[in-house]
Amino acid sequence: MGKKTLIIIAVILVAVMGGIAYLIGSGGETARNGMQESFTLNTSSDGSSTVAPSDSSTRKGQYVDYREGIVAETQGTKLLFFHAPWCPQCRDLEDDIEAKGVPDGMTIIKVDYDSNQALRKKYGVTIQTTIVHVNDEGEEVSKHVAYNDPTLKAVEAGIFSR
Q1: 18, 39 Cβ separation under 8 angstroms
Q2: Is the CB of residue 109 less than 8 Å from the CB of residue 78?
Q3: pLDDT of 52-104, one tens digit each?
């Protein structure tokens, strides 16, 4: 086998093993829009290759369900979406998110409004469709209620205009 063939095989193995590790690490949960993390193949002048995580600003946006530890594990901009399945505005916002896709470098984390009272209390959430922008430590950066205009465009305007 030639050097290029071995490099291709190595890259494929790394990608497969990374996918398996991701599935094991996430408990089998998958993101609705995109991968948990994207990778870039870097080839040096001597022909050797490495696979490295891409910059989070170029990582494909994702819409995922809340689970313990996800805020700390997530790179880039993190928005907690307090969603109730019985809420028409929540369903409208979710439909808009899924139709338009989440912007690159952003993760929208769907938090069940009814079963996460501790998170609601922590962030002062009193109504479903509340979006909380959090930093890497899970501290609130800003908050927006999308009840009257349940669109991704309104969320971005409300969250990032502060």
Answers
A1: yes
A2: yes
A3: 444 545 689 999 999 999 999 999 999 999 999 999 999 999 999 999 999 99
